């Protein structure tokens, strides 16, 4: 009987959390993250730096949906084609298809196939070169804000972690100008990662305590995460379907500001 009560309680919490997401729109951080007094202060050019096609759908859809909803202009820079299995060209096209679902113009999605940035565990990416490429994108598209993985990279993938080092390297080079804001997607522990919408409560609480350096973004359209990920047909196997269904990253993103010396 005890286990039955636990299961019922978890189901109730799950449904309550999902209702909170669907009915409460974006979250209290809507008034502060890239906005002023609850409204977009100006249209910003945001660069999302990812490692592989499908990163945007698996991990960043709450952020993408939030930013497009308030009128910001999103550019996606994907540092590899995800060619570990020899299907990089296919995965590249899948990213373009997913960007349509996520309402990111395809001409604002750039996928690199650089010999120094090939997909795979154990492949160390050149952070200085990555910083140069990010700088080129910033200059070419008048970027105001960068968003990428944090030092752990959600899954611990070495390519994700190298992105963080590269972005930090770029920021250190321009520390005197301070013209770019940079944010990282906060990695959570295993229990939170697979708690689905239930994680929103702790994420919101942490964001409140974190003041303006930590923002919680709820995904008012979680189904869009599933549909976007489904465009990556080469990757749409059973365990990724489960991931998108049960991952907290489908429902909420917590972004933390990257600061000099942090």
From TrEMBL:
InterPro entries: GlcNAc_PI_deacetylase-related, LmbE-like_dom_sf. One of its GO terms (cellular component) is endoplasmic reticulum. Residues 1-19 form the signal peptide. SUPFAM superfamilies: LmbE-like. GO terms for molecular function: N-acetylglucosaminylphosphatidylinositol deacetylase activity. Keywords: Signal. Its EC number is 3.5.1.89. It is an enzyme of class 3 (hydrolase). The keyword Signal applies. Gene3D superfamilies: LmbE-like. Coiled coil: none annotated. Belongs to the PIGL family. This is N-acetylglucosaminylphosphatidylinositol deacetylase. It comes from Heracleum sosnowskyi.
């Amino acid at each position: 009987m005890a286990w039955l009560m636990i299961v019922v309680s978890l189901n109730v919490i799950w449904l309550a959390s999902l209702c909170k997401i669907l009915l409460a729109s974006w979250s209290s951080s809507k008034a502060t993250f890239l906005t002023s007094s609850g409204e977009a202060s100006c249209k910003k050019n945001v660069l999302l730096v990812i490692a592989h096609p499908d990163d945007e759908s698996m991990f960043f859809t709450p952020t993408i949906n939030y930013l497009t909803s308030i009128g910001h202009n999103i550019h996606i820079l994907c540092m590899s084609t995800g060619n570990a299995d020899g299907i990089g060209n296919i995965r590249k096209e899948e990213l373009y298809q997913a960007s349509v679902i996520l309402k990111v113009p395809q001409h604002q999605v750039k996928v690199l196939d650089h010999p120094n940035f090939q997909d795979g565990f154990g492949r160390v990416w050149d952070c200085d070169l990555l910083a140069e490429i990010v700088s080129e994108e910033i200059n070419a598209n008048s970027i105001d804000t960068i968003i990428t993985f944090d030092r752990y990279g959600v899954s611990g993938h070495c390519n994700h972690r190298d992105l963080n080092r590269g972005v930090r390297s770029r920021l250190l080079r321009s520390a005197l100008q301070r013209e770019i804001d940079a944010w990282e997607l906060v990695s959570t522990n295993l229990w939170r990662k697979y708690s689905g919408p239930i994680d929103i409560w702790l994420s919101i609480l942490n964001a409140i305590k974190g003041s303006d350096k930590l923002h919680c973004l709820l995904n008012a359209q979680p189904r869009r995460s599933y549909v976007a990920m489904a465009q990556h047909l080469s990757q749409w196997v059973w365990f990724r379907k489960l991931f998108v269904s049960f991952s907290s990253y489908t429902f909420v993103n917590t972004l933390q500001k990257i600061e000099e010396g942090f």
